[in-house]
Model the fold of this input.
Amino acid sequence: MKKILFTASECTPFVKTGGLADVIGSLPQALIEAKLAEVRVILPLYDEIPAQWKEKMEKVATFDVKVGWRDQQATLYTLKHEGIVFYFLANTLYFTRKGIYGYYDDGERFVFFSQAIIDAFPYLDYTPDVLHAHDWQTGLAVAFAKVAPPTPNLRTVFTIHNIKYQGMMPHQAFDDLFQLPLEHFAGFEWNGMINCMKAGLFHADKITTVSPSYAEEIKDPYYSEGLHTILHQRANDLSGVINGINTNDYHPSKDPHIAVNYSHSRVKKKDNKEVLQKEFGLPVNRDVPMYVAISRLVEQKGFHLLERILDEFLQEDVQAIVLGTGEHEFEQSFSHLAHRHSDKMVTLLKFDEGLARQLYASADFFIMPSMFEPCGLSQLIALQYKTVPIVRETGGLKDTVKPFNEITGEGNGFSFSNYNAHDLLSVMKYSLNVYHNSDAWPRLLKNVNKSQFGWKESAKAYADIYDSFVDAGNNEE
Done:
């Protein structure tokens, strides 16, 4: 069985800011349960990690890590959780802070982390066949492993979760933070900057991203954030593997956050709707269609489109709830919309995991009109809670939500292709028509009930990638 060392900047249940943490928390488990690989995970030991986890960690070793001319100290800890061995790298200067991102020296922090991963290999009691790194924060670990392999025949996979965030630093950082000969500079530089994402793309043996459609989109300048050239160069090594979700955790039959548990029952789903309507002062009507959006309120998620059409859409007999925080423009806009339509709309400027699950369990429709979306997990969670997604056809949304066709009876949601507010309004009105169609609505719900997005198939796809080059590597002289 192949040995895989995952590395990333966040992972549930220890620390989370987004979907990356869910993937790192779920995919290793899926690989192990299917006996496809032996997986361990290495993470930064942030101050933000709750004490309940720190108290269970065991110290393994303390060692020096070179960050340019500086010697920084790393302390390696380990913890076993749900059958998986996790390693944590501690450093007071870089990780004893509030929050995990957003600092002026984030580049230096993850240079340290990436180098510490490589330097930790002698202390792991484990010799990986593959180092699998995720997003820009660990792209340098792939690069360092290629330039100076910590073990013979180590292979590398680099996964892009969101190409928009690349970890860029001034080019002087190469001399200041790296212990590398100048001949390696080109592998780290992009458009006059040190680019951690580019370093991972350049050095990795295989590159993956989180949906087949996104793998194609990022070769286009519109989606690539400037990296399309190198992605074309590495096209033969690039593939898209759709993310899954932890279907044991996200399951309405046993979710402790929701009022009434259910599997497929629309009656019990409407019971949840009624509880939610009472809680937020909306008119109690089990049959009124409820539309929800649960997201960071940022441009990428398509909220420019939604804010432009909600006034008109709320003229219909519907209810809407928006949950999230983000850009001031959207927070203000959706707050004003809720004030103007207080009998139909609620805006909740916060994020609460339990409340989010209540919305998934209560709603009829989930709105996700993203400008771009590498994979998206929210639409998968919506489907798991038997809530019909309305999405734009981009990235993983296109791969997981198939538009409902009244003639053929196929499709598990609604979608539109152009990034256009009128098209969003049109598809939302169509969804309302289907909701009131006694023939079409049950057929759509039947398709939603059949939608499955666990990790089984995705884990097999990753295992195939690991097998393909690990076997080849073992045959090298």
